[in-house]
Request: fold
Amino acid sequence: MFALIPTHLPLVLRSPRVLIGIGATTAATIGVVSYVLTRRRPSAEEIERERRELLARVGRITDGTIMDTMVAEVRCPALDLADDPEPVRQGPLTPDMIVYVYRIAGVTYECAQDVTMLADLVHGVRTDLPIQVRYAPQNPANSIVVAETWSGLRLGTRPPVPYPAEDELDKPF
Reply:
């Protein structure tokens, strides 16, 4: 085996251990570089969803207030008239952005959450009622008001729960 090692190399590089170490280091470097270049990077939506999940799971809760809800203009193509610049709105609209304010340790934070991906969870938001905000204790500016598994919003009126009849009140559970 020593006959295969070129003689023009310095004596330190002629050792089989050194050659194996150089080969292993080169292979590891090539593997790490190929992983970094070919790995799948998370999209912005995936990063935001993971942030919401983390805050919904471990975030602290405080009280807040909705300052504004931003709704994209909706136009009805069937009723769209060229001389009517006002959009036609039908029913309660779902907000795209919720601007809210909350206070922690004497500091007031004003934040906004993009809720376009959570449209079914924010339909009929009441802006006249207080809300709950989940925030990260290490970074109180990192907060949410709604996630896939948690909501601090007060939604529109729910159907009333029927009161049981008098004969049903006497029945045991």
The chain is about 25% helix and 20% strand. Residues 2-38 form one domain.
